[in-house]
Design a protein that fits this description.
binds S-adenosylmethionine; alpha/beta; two-stranded antiparallel ribbon; seven-stranded mixed sheet; single chain; 9 strands; 243 residues
Length: 243
């Protein structure tokens, strides 16, 4: 049996998805509030940047993977208009329900589907753009997920991966202090769950660097990949073109 990482722990591959599900089942109800608090609202700017780079047109077909509470799906839906499609997906029912309810409250009805990024239930070439924000880090077989994202894109289509990344060296100490001392405490106070936020900090450290992820995307079939560092690499947006 093969092993993988769940944060800093080594676990059997068969256990990771279940452990990740436990994290998001636990935080779903407080997810949006925690995002605002722990990023001091910056996650909104990172997502707005991804939406600007996506440069969607009316009628485009978009798949949002690991879409959770629906921030990107909502912004994309406004861009593609009534003639376009945005499919809002996630592997976790609790997260997807939070997102769907929020979108419905805002009058947006999007196709919403529970699905695993490693086995996408869509035909080849079905989408102009695929996005995954802060989701890839949690996947067990990232290469497989990236290959699936490539498969469902049309030729010339783009993949946007927005994810925590490797921060610039001068910021490392302060970032580690914030991640390992402040985040778990904030998680305990706000979401009643320190462990899930310790997992967040650890999983960021275990995630491939900007250059490593770029190489993985190229290996998955993206002929061209651009990397945009945001806030000194706290987050990076990787844009891959299927060509
Ligand atoms: C940190 S949340 C991100 C939610 C949203 N995209 C955002 O940016 O706010 C990560 C999401 O990845 C989802 N996820 C984890 N593994 C997945 C997989 N294999 N396939 C699809 N979604 C997955 C989780 O259920 C969770 O909702």
């Amino acid at each position: 049996m093969s092993e993988t990482h769940f944060g800093f722990q080594k676990v059997d591959e068969s256990q990771k998805a279940q452990r990740v599900r436990g994290v998001f089942d636990s935080v779903a109800a407080r997810y949006d509030l925690m995002n605002d608090l722990m990023s001091l609202g910056l996650h909104r700017a990172w997502k707005a940047y991804a939406v600007a780079v996506a440069n969607l047109r009316e009628g485009d077909r978009v798949l949002d993977i690991a879409g959770g509470t629906g921030d990107l799906a909502r912004a994309f839906a406004k861009k593609v208009g009534a003639s376009g499609t945005v499919v809002h997906t996630d592997i976790n029912e609790a997260m997807l329900r939070q997102g769907r309810d929020r979108l419905l409250d805002e009058g947006l009805v999007l196709p919403t589907t529970i699905c695993d990024a490693e086995r996408l239930p869509f035909p080849a070439g079905a989408f102009d753009l695929v996005s995954v924000a802060f989701g890839l880090r949690n996947m067990t077989h990232k290469e497989l997920a990236l290959a699936e994202m490539n498969r469902v894109l049309r030729e010339g289509g783009r993949l946007l991966v927005l994810e925590f990344s490797k921060v610039a060296p001068p910021l490392e100490k302060a970032y580690d202090w914030y991640s390992f001392k402040v985040l778990p405490r904030l998680g305990r106070w706000v979401a009643g769950d320190a462990e899930s936020y310790r997992y967040l900090a650890e999983s960021i450290r275990m995630h491939p660097s900007q250059a490593e992820l770029k190489a993985m995307m190229k290996a998955a079939g993206f002929g061209h990949v651009d990397v945009h560092n945001l806030n000194a690499g706290v987050v990076a947006l990787h844009v891959g073109i299927k060509c």
